[in-house]
Amino acid sequence: MTRDLICINCPMGCEMTVEVENGKVISVSGNTCKRGEIYAESEISNPTRTITTTVISAEGRPVPVKTAQPVPKDKISECTAAIKAAEIHLPVKVGQVIIDDLLGTGSQVTVTKTVQ
């Protein structure tokens, strides 16, 4: 079986063809660097994404946040709901952790902009 992927690791956006057999990557073609091959392996075996969103503070102001580490792609909706349900109070500083272990994924959720 083959899958067509577009690498999202850099602006090149290489269009790759990945040959997969029994859930394992056999070959990758179309990539122009090693990162494309690593991305293809990850996308086939355990796709992950970084979540960026906002949380409304208790004072009513939006606070931009993101996951510090990527989370499994199949848990994005569940993780986003947990982030949105977080209760935070102002002021917050960039880099401040608001959730330490997001739903057992091991990912922290951090503030990406200081909000007074």
In short:
The protein has 116 residues and is an alpha+beta fold. It has helices spanning 34-45, 76-84; strands at 2-6, 15-21, 24-29, 48-49, 52-56, 62-67, 71-72, 97-99, 109-111.
Structure description:
The chain has a four-stranded antiparallel sheet with strand order 5-6-9-8, with helices on one face. The chain is elongated. The chain has helices at 34-45, 76-84, and strands at 2-6, 15-21, 24-29, 48-49, 52-56, 62-67, 71-72, 97-99, 109-111. It starts with a strand and ends in a 5-residue tail after the last strand. The chain is of the alpha+beta class. A hairpin with a 5-residue loop joins strand 5 and strand 6 (62-67). The model has no long low-confidence stretch (mean pLDDT 95). Helix content is 18%, strand content 34%. It is built from two helices and nine strands, in the order βββαββββαββ.
Question: What overall geometry do the principal axes of the alpha carbons give?
Answer: elongated
- Beta content comes to 25-35%
SS-derived structural category:
alpha+beta
Q: Which percent bin holds the helix content? A: 10-25%
Mean pLDDT: 95
The H/E string reads: EEEHEEEEHEE
Number of strands: 9
Rounded radius of gyration (Å): 18 Å
SSE inventory with pairings:
Blueprint: E1 2-6, E2 15-21, E3 24-29, H1 34-45, E4 48-49, E5 52-56, E6 62-67, E7 71-72, H2 76-84, E8 97-99, E9 109-111
Antiparallel strand pairs: 1-2, 2-3, 4-7, 5-6, 6-9, 8-9
Which descriptors apply to this entry?
116 residues; alpha+beta; 34% strand
